[in-house]
Amino acid sequence: MGGHGSREPETGWSTVNEYFASYAVVAALLAAGVAVFAGALLASRLLRPDRPTPEKLTTYECGVDPVGEGWAQSQIRYYVYTYLYVVFAVDAVFLFPWATVFAAPGFGMTTLVEMFVFLAFIGLGILYAWRKRVLTWT
Amino acid sequence: MAEVLDVALRLAVIVIAFLTLPLIVGQTEHKAMAHMQSRLGPMYAGGFHGWAQLIADGVKFVQKEDIIPAAADRRVFALAPAVALVPYLVVMAVIPVGPGLVGADLDAGLFFALAVLGVGVLGSIMAGWSSANKYSVLGGMRSAAQLMAYELPLVLAASSVAMAAGTLSLPGIASAWQWWWLPWQAIGAVVFFVAGLAELRRPPFDMPIADSEIIMGPMTEYTGIRFALFLLSEYVGIVVLSALTTVLFLGGWQGPLLPGPVWTLLKVFALAFVVIWVRVSFPRLRADQLQKLAWVGLVPLALLQLALTGVVKVLLAA
């Protein structure tokens, strides 16, 4: 009887371990990617010449000497729809956990109505942005 | 021990695929594009129809001097190619090529893939800003604008498949796939592929690179091996996008007669050919056309697909 109680946390831990084990493969691949990058740079360092001159290191501007700084201030016209994007992207993140359960037995119509409420919100948002002429670029 | 060997073997296969498939796609692009334009393309390197052209290119790139402009932000400039390239390799870990043949079967595989793909675009923004070059800054800004516009339809179209399959695991989605999903998810598939193409900044969505107006965009100041790694990341991107589209919308390894991995590869290369074909066929989109296509075209279509998926799925369950 007591064995049952002690077995329960064990299965819990093995699930957690499996979870991290699957991400360990991802971490190993990340390390392999960094190694590929470092290896390519190292091979290049062994093979390439290195003779910098001031002319070589100037910023490229179609052959003439660069005018002013490269980090020029420019007007970014995209900020309004940056907001638009942030709002929608945050909405979309909630779609994923919902997507896996929405058709589970017992939900059916409720979640479908929920989905249309969600779509209506996004649709209305885009319509609003459109009416406010955020979505025109000329 | 056997388990460790198994994982090591999977990792080795993924790294080899990561280093060879992009070259095959690149060579196919050289030749297919040339023949579509009544040229021959590379003919000399390696002897037979210039098969070793990209290897020769690699040998050339690795010997070139590594120039970092004096005005640039050195660290960010040096790191940018890695940020552009490595995420694609990491994504390949969760893409299945056959039943049970996957680097890591993550529960949230689809979510993971989309999140990591988003990191890759940061590389081009980093390159654009750190170069301290006017063309690069413009290109980086364009990259950022493009990423923002096309991320939303990409995510919405992908979540439609997750709804259909009821799981976020990529092997789970591929094995749940049935042939009638093709018409059911057709809109989502087109939206996903087009948005993915835009995220890769491939023609006709190559406004951030636009060689005729801003030289090479964020990569203007790059040369040698760092530039080659940027190019590699573009072609790995094609492979990853084609593979994700295959797994999500075309049933992954499913198909008659041939073994699963062969079907996966066939579908991936067919889609990669479409990417090349589109490059040859369409002119570059202007900034306003680009934004309009995303917000007025693809996003509403993706929402429509979500509604369609939801209704059909609930009706089937009822």
Query: What is the number of helical segments of chain A per DSSP (H or I, 4+ residues)?
Result: 3
Helix and strand element order of chain B: HHHHHHHHHHHH
The biggest sheet of chain A, with number of strands, parallel, antiparallel or mixed sense and barrel status, is: none
Unreliable segments of 5+ consecutive residues of chain A: 1-9
Q: Provide the β-strand percentage band of chain B.
A: under 5%
Class computed from helices, strands and strand pairing of chain B: mainly alpha
What's the overall average pLDDT of chain A, rounded? Answer: 76
Strand content of chain A: under 5%
End-to-end span of chain B in angstroms? Answer: 48 Å
Any low-confidence stretches of chain B, pLDDT <50, length ≥5?
none
Count of spatially separate domains of chain A: 2
Biggest interface: chains and residue counts?
A-B, 71 and 86 residues
Distance between the termini of chain A: 75 Å
Describe this structure in words.
- The complex is a heterodimer of chains A (138) and B (318).
- With 138 residues, chain A is mainly alpha-helical.
- Chain A has helices at residues 2-47, 79-101, 109-131.
- Chain A starts with a helix and ends in a 7-residue tail after the last helix.
- Chain B has 318 residues and is an all-alpha fold.
- Chain B has one domain (68-317).
- Chain B starts with a helix and ends with a helix.
- Classes of the chains: A mainly alpha (138), B mainly alpha (318).
